[in-house]
């Protein structure tokens, strides 16, 4: 058959479409919960994303606090490797991000190098302020309009800083209105340049608390402020009354276990706070709808991936806690993740275990950029074949870590002896979930006072019974093995993960078993390894509580003190 000019032109046009890199829109909310059912109150997100994409119900943040979580998300590295472990200097915030050399080594820079136009509006990092916004400017953005501290959470008096211009104060305009306008403006800019693919980060502050700092440098917390048109919605909504909501018996570990049961007036206030969160999310719901409509009108929707998630989760009343995050319990670390785009199954729910540390590798893979060797995560499976393969092959664990203080954000009046700040909230934790057969589902944690927690979340999904509490009566066996044998494996896994780097963070069992014959907890529970795990391997412990990452406070390190299952050798002898 002769190749006519028209056929050739059509073929070239089709090839150009197929070869064009996809566009990526990333929506990052602030403190949005999964377990308090916030996703049930965003119908437009359900219509456009949940029903047209895949929801990853086992997606986790690895540090349940804004800045460390966001740095992990944008760099593909865990907080113990970025050393950005807090929202404020000296341990965290934008200045620490810059000092660690990360401003030259993060996702927008890599996307620009691959030919993408990159845009961002909303909250970037904590301590990115009216004083340091240009010291230096965040690298890698074609266009940007950032919220700035100390006004980031001031819904009605925010400050924004666009590109290389000076900051601008907006008085009396809800920040959610501004973010929507700025995001759609950047989308129009991106659409107007059809020769380049684009990445747009949209970071509303909803449903984060409203917060301002007075002239005496005192924080004042309160509920988020919704748009006026949403202020009347959901008058009967309440925090879900799950078994761990303001329970009659104490639960949790460390300082959490000492909390008193909330009074009725506190519960009533927290229900109001919850409703304001839901109302504030309506502007995000409408923004997603507007983004979809713009992409559709420009005929770009079919070649665009849309990723929706939150920097961390949130609790209100669970284990008697006042509104906040920063703990390792499921409400704080298990967050929404929805992905829509070419090849992504529609209306499906994935059970594979994923985390924020996997998002930078995922986006780079979508953009056709070779993955970096120093990533601590792995790309998330998107297509049906990838997800099917992941059930058998993907890691089943999540590293969870935190340093420093915990804040209570509700703005409620505290009773005598109570405080809105907890000084020692440092801990190391992990989640491990058997995706293939659902034989096990554990949360294991060690606080900096060396108090241990273990929850069998197959039988205790609300984490009410700590099997390692001194008063607990744990089962004699789990998974057909002695209880102490299971605990020893979990401790060894955490021992590797708490200081892991790069591929070891994805394949930690290979560090313990270099022969490659152990890939998961089930493999590690083989009886022949009992002596190695129970008697020989070092145990996780802290030397003391610290506000940030100080190695000599963190106890034994696997890289120098850990043993391998091979003649009792240390890790350092093999690396």
TrEMBL record:
Keyword Kinase: no
Record flagged with keyword Hydrolase: yes
Keyword terms of this UniProt record: Hydrolase, Signal
Domain Sulfatase N-terminal intervals: 22-369
The enzyme's E.C. designation: 3.1.6.1
SUPFAM superfamilies linked to this entry: Alkaline phosphatase-like
Family: Belongs to the sulfatase family.
Protein name, as recorded: Arylsulfatase
């Amino acid at each position: 058959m002769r190749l006519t000019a028209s056929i050739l032109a059509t073929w070239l046009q089709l090839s150009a479409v197929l070869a064009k890199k996809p566009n990526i829109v990333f929506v990052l909310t602030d403190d949005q919960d999964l377990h308090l059912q916030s996703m049930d109150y965003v119908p437009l997100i359900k219509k456009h994303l949940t029903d047209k994409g895949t929801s990853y119900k086992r997606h986790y943040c690895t540090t349940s606090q804004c800045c460390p979580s966001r740095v992990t998300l944008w760099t593909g590295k865990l907080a113990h490797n970025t050393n950005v472990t807090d929202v404020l200097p000296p341990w965290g915030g934008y200045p620490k991000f810059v000092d660690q050399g990360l401003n030259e080594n993060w996702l927008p820079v890599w996307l620009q190098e691959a030919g993408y136009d990159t845009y961002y509006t909303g909250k970037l990092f904590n301590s990115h302020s009216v004083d340091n916004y240009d010291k230096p400017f965040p690298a890698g953005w074609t266009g940007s309009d950032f919220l700035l501290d100390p006004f980031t959470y001031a819904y009605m008096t925010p400050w924004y800083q666009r590109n290389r211009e000076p900051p601008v104060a907006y008085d009396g305009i809800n920040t959610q209105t501004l973010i929507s306008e700025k995001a759609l403006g950047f989308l129009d800019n991106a659409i107007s340049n059809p020769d380049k693919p684009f990445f747009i980060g949209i970071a509303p502050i909803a449903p984060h608390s409203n917060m301002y700092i007075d002239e005496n440098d005192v924080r004042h917390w309160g509920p988020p402020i919704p748009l006026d048109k949403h202020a009347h919605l959901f008058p009967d909504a309440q925090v879900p009354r799950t078994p761990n909501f303001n329970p009659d018996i104490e639960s949790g570990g460390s300082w959490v276990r000492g909390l008193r049961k909330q009074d009725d007036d506190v519960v009533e206030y927290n229900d109001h706070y919850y409703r304001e969160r839901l109302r504030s999310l309506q502007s995000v719901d409408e923004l997603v709808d507007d983004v979809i409509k713009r992409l559709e009108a420009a005929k770009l929707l079919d070649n665009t991936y849309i990723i929706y998630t939150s920097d961390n989760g949130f609790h209100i009343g669970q284990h008697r806690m006042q509104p906040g995050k920063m703990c390792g319990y499921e409400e704080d670390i298990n967050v929404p993740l929805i992905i829509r785009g070419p090849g992504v199954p529609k209306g499906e729910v994935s059970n594979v275990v994923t985390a924020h540390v996997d998002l930078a590798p995922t986006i780079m893979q979508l953009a056709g950029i070779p993955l970096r060797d120093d990533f601590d995560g792995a790309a998330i499976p998107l297509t049906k074949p990838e997800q099917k393969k992941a059930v058998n092959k993907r890691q089943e664990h999540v590293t969870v870590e935190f340093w420093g203080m915990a804040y209570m954000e509700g703005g409620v009046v505290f009773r005598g002896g109570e405080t809105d700040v907890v000084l020692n909230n440092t801990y190391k934790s992990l989640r491990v979930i058997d995706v293939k057969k659902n034989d096990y589902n554990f949360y294991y944690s060690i606080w900096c006072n060396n108090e241990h927690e273990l929850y069998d979340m197959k039988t205790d999904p609300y984490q009410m019974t700590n099997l390692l509490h001194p008063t607990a009566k744990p089962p004699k066996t789990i998974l057909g093995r002695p209880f102490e044998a299971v605990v020893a494996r979990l401790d060894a896994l955490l021992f590797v993960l708490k200081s892991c780097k790069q591929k070891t963070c994805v394949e930690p069992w290979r560090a313990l078993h270099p022969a490659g014959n152990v890939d998961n907890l089930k493999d590690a529970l083989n009886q022949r390894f009992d002596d190695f795990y129970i008697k020989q391997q070092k145990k996780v412990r802290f030397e003391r509580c610290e506000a940030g990452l100080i190695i000599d406070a963190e106890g034994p390190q696997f890289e120098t003190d850990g043993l391998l299952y091979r003649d009792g050798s240390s890790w350092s002898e093999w690396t």
